[in-house]
Amino acid sequence: MFTVKRRVLASVMTIGLAALALTACSASGGTSSSTAGSVSTKTKGDITIWYRPGSIPTSSVNGVKKAFPNVTFHLLQSANVDAKVTAALRAGTGLPDITTGDPVVYAQVASKFVNLGENGFTPAVAKTYVSWKVKLGQTPSGEQIGVPIDIGPEAFYYNATAFKAAGLPTDPSAVGKLVSTWSGYEKLAEQVKAAGKFACDDPSYLFKYLTWSKSALFYKQSGGSLIYNPVSSVVKDAFTKSMDFENAGLCADVQPYTTDWASSVSQGDTIAFINPPWVGAGLLSTTAPKQSGQWRVATATPGGYGAEDGSELVVPKTSANPKLATLIAIWLTNAANMSSGFTHNGLFPSTIASYSSAALTKGQPYFGGQKVGSLLGTFAEKAPSLPKGVNTNGIDTVYQNEIVNAETSKLSSADAYKAALAKAEAQFGN
Amino acid sequence: MTAQASSASATRSAKRQTAHGTTRGKRRLWSYWREYVSISPFFVLFALFGIIPLIYAIYLSLLKWDGLSNPIFVGGAQWVRLFTTPDVWQALGNTVLIFAFGQIPVILGALVGASLLSQPRLRFRSFYQTAFFLPQVTSLVAVAIVFQSIFSDKYGLMNDVLKAIGLPQQGWLSNSWEIKAVIALMIIWRGFGYFLIIFMAGMSSIDQSLFEAARVDGAGPRRIFTAITIPLLIPTIVFVALTGTIAGLQIFTEPQVLFSGSTSAGGPNNAGMTMMLLQYQYLGGVGSADISVQPDLGFASVIGWVIFILLVVIAVANNRLLRNSWREN
Amino acid sequence: MLGVLIFAFPFYWLIVMATTATADIFTSPPRLIPGLEFFANFAKVLNESAFATAFVNSLWLTTTITVIQLFFTSLAGFVFAKKRFPGRNKLFAVLLATLIIPTGVSIVPSYQIYADLGWINTFLPLIVPGAVTAFGVFWMRQAAEASVSTELIDAARMDGAGFMRTFWSIGLPAMRPSLVAFGIFQVMWAWNDYLWPLLVLGSPSEFTLPVALQQLLSNLSESTDYSAVMAGTLVATLPLIIVFFILRRTILENVSAGALKG
Q1: pLDDT tens-digit profile of A279-307?
Q2: In chain C, how many H helices and how many E strands?
Q3: Residues B291, A257: C-beta atoms closer than 8 Å
Q4: Residues of B with CB below 8 A from A106's CB?
Q5: Which of A290, A302, B48, B78 lies 20 to 30 Å from B279 when distance is taken between CA atoms?
Q6: Interface mutation target, options B17, B42, B61, B308, chain C, most CBs of C under 10 Å
Q7: What pLDDT score does C63 carry?
Q8: By C-alpha distance, which of A113, A156, A100 is closest to A280?
Q9: A80, C125, C196, C215 from C207: Cα distances, Å
């Protein structure tokens, strides 16, 4: 019921905004052409947007035509946006004005994208998003080429009913206190294990949490560039900690998005894990709908906070009206739309204002009425910067796979680390 | 090129044809225009969508290119890299093993199965045929989920069954040999119906009176199979062997879907990594989230060429066999 | 036959999953009896993906591809088998040789070509390049060789039948069982083709069934509803099973036909 009301409210606000813009525009006298210095919601134009299905809020897609009544929109939803953008970049033609994409990848060819900072993505606009996410949209030399969409703050999800049965505290802040340090989490996982359950799904995902929450993404910022930096004590420490969990039998050894994960969670064997919201809320609630009301999110995560990056919007330089494209990209990801995206699309907002919006401060039935949205919002704000390089995801996967391999081949933690380092070096070292 | 030239001359000759009429005896090349036009679509399409990409692929194999930033010309370096990348050799070994465990048994099994299902007095024939045909028409997305949930290590049905009958559980999707066995099983499961239909179609062209005569002479089913079915089915068998080998060495789908969702594309320790799957990784793995290699279209092309060379070697070895089979007809 | 049961089991389990709520699939002990939730699951498919559109797309695309393929391959196969012309054997050898070219090596160049032709986001890359396959021509040549009677062709020529007429009225009818068999393969391949539709088709209004089903399971989407995927797959499979049932007799019930011939 509530969501329907909110949607109506949002559209009323949109119309109101448009009307406001209309009067503002007529006051300044006349319509602005594409070459004019300033753009507004009244500007005329022709804008093509490509996006991956489910990657931007439905309210953005539905509302953009109303918000920019003089723009002719061509919206294309496509599962293979990245491949299409890459092909179009090679050809140099056929690019849209706005598309979803990874600025970290496109930073290699930054000259083919609009520097949004010069086209309306002002510091005041940047301040509306969490700062580390804004930074992810910048090239190493500081050009802003991405507009933030969603992010993935990591959290400790647990089944309170199962925790109670295991004689553990069930209150989010009490559990948060327990798992706020790594040794605390380890102790809790041991208690859960003693009860015949698991408080960790897969050690490879612990590794991801540990590295990302410490900004150890195999690169380091040095002046105006990112330098490949494979050997770091943080990575080694994360690897060792994850392997210790594995060797102590504290993890169920099931990776999200496999059928084993689904079985383990819905049969109540895995009763807690650290994951981003698309696993913690999305995958969990569809896999185990019967455990609705039993799950909670702890108020802290071990040794700090972390988040995964999520996606962004970019504006190719071939756009005829980069200022208008930038304005529309900002509108698509504004706080109202992002809050709606949280409710309807499972996208976690990067806009700070959303964290105190009705959508995120509302109690979630799956989590027993806990206000999970605003809690994750506080994590997102505390998450560190992510010096992500082109190969971060690839190297991450090498390390994660080596942890999985060690599960099978019974390698010692030190040997597995050596193997991972060698593989990463062979693959990404040049 | 031959095809384009011939179709061009074909249109020219069409006009002359009406003027001169067909001369008997030694006919001019253009008088065969109908024949050339009839077969030209394949050659034209192949030139456009087969040859041009291949030439481009040769050029690609000399580059280091992520597909996005400017390509770097590296000459033969990608080919040298082949010999220093253990993953390639592991993938090659996996491919051959999976081929031996999966593709070869399924072809032989389908041959025997087809002859059994062709028995005139078989009951429930349509039931069998449909049962074997079903895997062929099931979408891969569903096949992935079904096989994952049957063979997954912790909660798989197979391990439940083993446990129930008191046998030790297996790491179906983690141990090297078990992974290959499961992929081979998937190949057999998916491919059996396909080869079965080809063989049965081939058998349908065999004159039934030969079987009747053999039966009257007192030949048993096994004797009929080896003395009549097999020899008369040679063209079909050769055809299946060739196309089956080509498809078998390009195994890709089965391991790809089996490990969908997990971070390792080829399974733990890459035990299920095949050549095609490895190439797909270097292409940037469209549609899959986790890639553990640096995308490089140049190296992907080189891997593609290795598969190609392998097939050429096999094809040359089979060449005489194949030629004989279609010339004699 | 135990073998048949083992073969049918994965499909049976697919039915079990398709008729059970996702919440009840991953229980212990595993559920082995079909449930009653099929319509609820299929409703989710209809809600969460453009299933109906994809179904229509797959239907017409598969039909188009198959008809084009059958016409050109049977014509070429007929000519290779029954006509004499200079270079025939060499051209056929070339055609056979193309069979061994692995498809993987040309994924990137092909995509580039389609992009240059402006074919991305259209169905053309799925129809044109594969309109005549070497496999099909080879198959049809074998069929024409085995079943088209040379005497009949000669007789038709005496009666003044032209080139196409001979093919149409003598060649095609004789090749019918092989046409049907190859047609079934072609329908299967086109119906289940996944990689290229995923690469070249852009919007959900263009998606074919395999792509639409994959969207349900994408780890980029908010949910992974196993039951819905299974229910969608089951419905997507039905047309192929129907086609198979109708045409099965033509290709496989050879015994009675053969007996008549003998």
Answers
A1: 988 889 888 989 999 999 999 999 999 99
A2: 16, 0
A3: no
A4: 68
A5: B48
A6: B42
A7: 95
A8: A156
A9: 12, 14, 11, 10
Chain A nearest-CA distance from C86, in A, is 43
> What's the token pair of residue C210?
């395999």
Q: Is C105 on the interface with B (CB under 8 A)?
A: yes
Mean pLDDT score of chain A: 88
Residue among C86, C106, C230 minimizing CB distance to B57: C106
Q: In the 8-state DSSP scheme, what is residue C161?
A: -
Alpha helices in A112-232 (DSSP H): 123-126, 131-136, 160-165, 172-179, 182-194, 203-212
Q: Give A324-337 as a DSSP string.
A: HHHHHHHHHTSHHH
Instruction: Identify the H or E element spanning A72.
Output: strand A71-77
> Would you call C113 an interface residue with chain A, using a CB distance cutoff of 8 Å?
no
pLDDT, residue C101, reads: 79
DSSP B51: I
What residues contact residue A175 under an 8 Å CB cut-off, 6+ apart? Answer: A156, A158, A163, A168, A169, A188, A296, A298, A299
User: Which residue type is seen at A161?
Assistant: T
Tokens of A241: 């900690």
Residue A34 — pLDDT band, cuts 50, 70, 90?
very low
Can you tell me the mean pLDDT for C68-91?
93
CA separation for the pair A84, A82 (Å, rounded): 5
Cα A206 to Cα A251, B195, B311, C240: the distances in Å are: 10, 46, 43, 45
> Which residues in chain A have their CB less than 8 angstroms from residue C111's CB?
83, 87
- Put simply, the chain C residues between 44 and 103 with a CB less than 8 A from any chain B CB are 72, 75-76, 78-80, 83, 85-89, 91-103
Q: Whose structure tokens read 């050009």?
A: A143
Contact (CB, 8 A) for C191 and C183: no
pTM, entire model: 0.85
Taking CA–CA distances from C109, the nearest residue in chain A reads A87
Q: What is the pLDDT of residue B36?
A: 92
CA angle C31, C33, C37 (to 5 degrees): 90
Residue A88: list chain C partners with CB under 8 A.
115
Subunit contact B155:A263, Cβ cutoff 8 A: yes
With a CB cutoff of 8 Å and minimum separation 6, the contacts of A4 are none
Write down the number of H helices and E strands in chain A. 20, 12
Average pLDDT over every residue of A69-79: 88
> What residues of C are in contact with residue B322 (Cβ under 8 Å)?
96
Residue B285 pLDDT: 59
C-alpha B285/C-alpha B273 separation (Å) is 13
The mean-pLDDT minimum among C43-47, C146-150, C252-256 falls in C252-256
pLDDT tens across A345-357, in order?
Answer: 889 999 999 999 9
A157 phi and psi, to 5 degrees? -95, 140
pLDDT on residue A6: 28
Pick from A87, A266, A289: CB nearest C27: A266
Closest CA of chain B from C260, distance in Å: 9
Contact at CB, C92 and B307, closer than 8 angstroms: no
- Condensed to tens digits (0 to 9), the pLDDT of residues C235-248 reads 998 888 888 888 87
CB contact under 8 A, B150 and C10: yes
Among A147-156, A166-175, B246-255, which is the least confidently predicted range? Answer: B246-255
Give the tokens for residue B134. 């079903």
Q: For C211, which of A55, A79, A266 is closest by C-beta distance?
A: A79
Contact C142 B326 (CB under 8 A): yes
Burial of A136 (0-12, 13-18, 19+ CB in 10 A): buried
Pairwise CA distance, residues B147 & B246, whole Å: 24
Phi and psi torsions of A98, nearest 5°: -140, 140
